[in-house]
Design goal:
With 138 residues, the protein is α+β, with helices and mostly antiparallel strands. It is 22% helix and 45% strand.
Length: 138
């Protein structure tokens, strides 16, 4: 089964509220996560909401990474979608989880763009159990 891309939907809990409120810090984490995945960054757009929260996207040649944060809950919803054999969205996901101080990570992997016999495309979903994160120094 050959897929056009891998999309990881990631729920990060127990993150640092200070980090999740810092638009420049979140942007840096997501840009570095893209590089960890061996992706080529094309464009970056981030916004800080008032009184708190950050949303942003890193557009990469291989697709995108996006994040939405709720600092008051220590929660971040993050997507890592990459195409091609030279990128690894799992590396981006695990990097971002560590850098945002997540204590748990719940993921769903979707293999997208799987050709079917009738000329249409489909996807396959793989759910992963929550994983405790070991906090490491930067």
């Amino acid at each position: 089964m050959e897929a056009r891309g891998t999309h990881i939907i990631c729920e990060l809990s127990g993150c640092s509220p200070e980090l999740l409120s810092d638009v420049d810090g979140v942007r840096t984490v997501m840009e570095r996560a893209a590089l960890e995945a061996n992706a080529e960054i094309l464009k970056v757009a981030f916004h800080r909401f008032q009184p708190q929260g950050v949303s942003g996207v890193v557009v990469i040649a291989e697709s995108h990474l996006s994040i939405h944060t709720w600092p008051e809950s220590g929660y971040a919803a993050v997507d890592f979608y990459t195409c091609g054999d030279h990128t690894d969205p799992w590396r981006a996901c695990e990097f971002a989880a560590r850098k945002l101080g997540a204590t748990t990570m719940l993921t769903t992997e979707v293999k997208r763009g799987i050709a079917s016999t009738n000329g249409q495309y489909t996807h396959v979903v793989h759910e992963h159990a929550g994983r405790s994160m070991v906090k490491r120094s930067a």
